[in-house]
Amino acid sequence: MILQLAIGPVAFMILNTSASKGFLAGLQIMIAAALVDSLFILLSFLGISAVIERPKIKILFKISSSIILSLFGMNLVLSFFQISLIPNISLFSELTATSPFVNGLLLTASNPLTIIFWGSILSKQIIENNYTKRQLCLFAAGCVLATIVFLTFVAILGTLLNNFLPEKILKLLNIFIGVLLIFLGIKLLRD
Which of 10, 11, 151, 166 is the most buried (most CB within 10 A)? Predict the structure, then answer.
């Protein structure tokens, strides 16, 4: 659960979405983030994170992640003026490019540090604690469960903000979160 205290763009997105669109919209992002984390944990378990550590691939991931974070941020800022950068492309009957679930998938999957992070955490457990495959699977399940619990609390907090804050403040929160995402996108390129 301590790992969850490193609040990132997904948590901010859940907070913002829950505040503006309600608890269920925030939960959609949480489910998407948990699915991507689960996939990244599995890929890390299989050793894929080592491939992403290659310099050229890492640079490609950093650039694409920076662009995605910045686009999400700009979209939030421009939504204040009823302008959308992300087109409403229908992927499936209920899933569009602007649905919270799809946004959660894209934002979580776009961060190359996530798979490297999970690869490092799993390697640490194997090296330091001599975990067996079964113990490592239980540890990974606990990590995903911690993600679900923490992000659900973030969605609840966002919903509470919606109940107590005026609409103008929520719109300013959108701008703040958007600027923060743009900053994180630029920072990712600089690191």
Answer: 151
Q: In 3D, which of 152, 140, 145, 144 has the Cα closest to residue 29?
A: 152
CB of 157 closer than 8 Å to CB of 146:
no
Instruction: Note the pLDDT tens digit of each residue in 65-96.
Output: 778 778 877 877 887 787 776 654 333 444 44
Q: Which long-range contacts (CB under 8 A, 24 or more apart) does 20-23 make?
A: 20/162, 20/170, 20/173, 20/174, 21/100, 22/159, 22/162, 23/155, 23/156, 23/158, 23/159
pLDDT in tens, 117-133: 777 777 777 777 888 88
